[in-house]
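Our working data are protein records whose layout never changes between entries. The record below serves as our worked example for the rest of this section:
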Amino acid sequence: MAEGVFQIDVPLKKVNSGKVREIYDAGDGNLLLVTSDRLSAFDVIMDDPIPGKGKVLNKMSLFWFDFFKDRVPNAVVESDPKKMDCLKEATPEAIEALKGRCVLMKKAEVLPVECIVRGYIIGSGWKDYQRTGSVCGIPLPEGLQMADKLPEALFTPSTKAEQGEHDENISFDQTVNIIGLSKALKLKEMALMLYTEAAEYARERGIIIADTKFEFGELDGEIVLIDEVLTPDSSRFWPADKVVLGNSPPSYDKQIVRDWLETSDWGKTPPPPKLPSEIIQKASDAYHEIFKKLTGSEV
């Protein structure tokens, strides 16, 4: 792992280090999530950070948490490091470095299902459709083209894989077996509502949300939205005026890096190759651009 990518001295016990986030025990039943500038591609963390990426992801999630707070409860406690009791012992330098890239959340019981919603046919869904005429077992009309809008948004859950492993698509019945019928129905309802409303909001701003994934947890018997929400790492954002059916549209995310890696002779196993400075800059620009287009503000 590219340890040098993340060097903020946080005076708390680290409980997990993910591909992008560092998670700390903040006491009082809370967790501190800190979003780094790390980027993973093909399940390998790159040695080169993408400047500002962590702040984009963190602030984008906070934007959507706030957008939906009246309809979907979330686990957010605080996002200003200066107001967090758990960081009273942090140095001024650490507090400054954490600005914009951290969030204090209540520790929820994570529901072990990734809630994926697809509004357009692309990626693994397109490959599945070509092979079977369905996406994740859900039959679709004949004649769809790559990047076509689906007749209706699809809830296609998957398992939550451990780091380094791949998530596995599961059926709704399998979801019921994992978490029970009432919770499965609730997750489906909430995920489809979140996607539909966000997609309408984005479309008014010239952006198509092709697909996205949500994560939920349980807190005091209530299902709450957790982790990241509608970010460039958890969603596929397309410029609406650049979508051409039959082609893979450009997207505001790490696809720029993936595309470059595909042209290299890298075998998609560690260690990763060094990214060219122009690819790093293009990726950074894409993250910042989608943030501004959707929130109307700078990072």
